[in-house]
Design a protein that fits this description.
Blueprint lengths: L5 E2 L12 E3 L6 E2 L5 E5 L8 H7 E5 L4 E7 L8 E7 L9 E6 L3 E7 L3 E6 L4 E6 L2 E6 L12 E4 L2 E9 L10 E9 L6 E4 L3 H4 L10 E3 L4 H8 L5 E5 L19 H5 L7 E2 L2
Parallel strand pairs: 3-9, 10-18, 16-17
Antiparallel strand pairs: 1-2, 2-4, 4-7, 5-8, 6-7, 6-19, 8-9, 10-11, 11-12, 13-18, 14-15, 15-16
């Protein structure tokens, strides 16, 4: 994934002037679950949010109804985030989207094919639906007490190798090492990745520290090659709480009326 663009300042008629970062690069193709997300370097006062939302203009080729909503980003202590998502479930595949930031900065990007992966922690299986074509993959998820987050997540990024250290997530010296074919789902460190334990436990028991483990027989690599940034991964059958909206892109865990509660301007039609 290319580095998201950074603007110099929010140039709207508001009292605050802050740097902003957009999560989708100009020309990028993303999965159907990816919200448009704009992160600010400083909190935006409630009185200024409607003006900021009007400064952020979205047009789509499908006439999607959507809205901006303000999100507390788990990854930032000094800033704030506003996301735009449709009212219905996910974007329509092949939708062309134009994001205007003020009058001079315009980005164009595309929604690709649909991929939704559903992980059932109770049956230890993942069902991957790609445009009507379904495959099933045995998995192992978080063991009791370290259960995998429940709810809808969106692929933030992916890397062929990631150094994972349990000390960074408060688990002491439980693990430290390289894990391969890692698909990143949450800021708090949830991944779908290759795990040697899955060679014997996938489809049978949950033994991980919270991630979704796939076997080393090529299963993990095939899934990694199949998914794109913005694809959807849903987890059901877990005893853990639903992932927070700002823990990655948990936007879809709010119903539409809940989403609008955090919008200054309310529902808009993007045409």
């Amino acid at each position: 994934m290319s580095e998201p663009a950074v603007l110099a300042q929010v140039k709207v008629k508001v009292k605050v002037k802050v740097k902003v970062k957009v999560n989708i690069s100009d020309g990028q193709t993303v999965g159907v679950g990816m919200p448009i997300s704009v992160t600010f370097s400083e909190p935006v006062p409630a009185a200024e949010r409607k003006a900021v939302e009007s400064w952020l203009r979205v047009q789509t080729s499908s006439g999607t109804i959507g809205a901006w909503s303000w999100v507390k980003d788990q990854n930032r202590s000094d800033g704030e985030r506003v996301d735009c998502r449709p009212s219905s479930t996910y974007w329509q595949p092949d939708t062309k989207i134009t994001l205007g930031l003020g009058s001079h900065d315009v980005r164009h990007f595309t929604i690709g094919r649909s991929l939704v992966a559903t992980v059932d922690a109770s049956t230890h299986m993942m069902t991957v639906d790609t445009g009507g074509r379904t495959t099933r993959i045995p998995v192992t998820t978080g063991r009791p007490g370290l259960d995998t987050w429940k709810g809808t997540m969106v692929v933030m990024d992916k890397e062929s190798k990631v150094l994972m250290d349990s000390r960074t997530v408060g688990l002491g010296d439980e693990y430290r090492g390289d894990y391969y074919w890692a698909v990143h789902l949450t800021t708090s460190g949830t991944y779908v990745h290759q795990n040697p334990q899955a060679d014997t436990e996938a489809g049978h028991r949950n033994v991980t520290h919270g991630c979704v483990g796939l076997a080393t027989d090529g299963t993990a690599k095939r899934f990694y090659n199949q998914v794109s940034v913005g694809d959807v991964v849903m987890v059901t059958g877990s005893d853990k709480a639903t992932v927070a909206v700002g823990n990655g892109y948990g936007d879809w865990n709010l119903r539409w009326n809940q989403w609008l509660e955090h919008s200054a301007a309310g529902q808009t039609t993007t045409v």
